User: What shape does this take?
Amino acid sequence: MAESATHTAKTNASKTNASKRTAANWETFRTAEPDLAGTVEERFGAFTHHILATLRKDGSPRTTGLEVRFLGGELWLGMMPGSLKALDLLRDPRFALQANPGEGQSMGGGDVRISGRAVEVTDAATKAAYTKEVEPPEPFHLFRTELTEVVRTYVEDDKYLVVQVWKPGEPVRTLKRT
Assistant: This one.
């Protein structure tokens, strides 16, 4: 009986630890993988507008343009009040964010995308600090992100397609193919 209880406790602890690794904020990612995080920030910093994918009420995807900010160890998403993308995230927080690939076919730095959950921020002090830094039109929805995956895809030596995948609690996995 004691052995069964110990096994159950270990299993529950393992499940709890696994659930803690399912999402991370930007600072956690940056600390774990500074090189990849730097590349991702550069890609998002190269252009103002990016593509956000959310889920509509019926479950189908919606893509819209969006500006993003990396501030205070967080990746922030700001939106107009009542916008369809904000309403989507309030209903279902899952999102995918694609960095603007830029003009032509060069995609300097590669193709970068982030998946996760958006958590609405309603705390007045946090919104005030964001407003001071960014100066968005008010009122607005503000979401901080919980990352579940970061992916970079690029071409190396005009020969290899390289895919780097990071998930919370795991090292970057790199896949290379010709």
In short: The radius of gyration is 19 Å. The beta strands are 50-55, 61-66, 68-71, 74-79, 94-98, 111-120, 141-156, 160-166, 173-177. The first helix runs from residue 2 to 20.
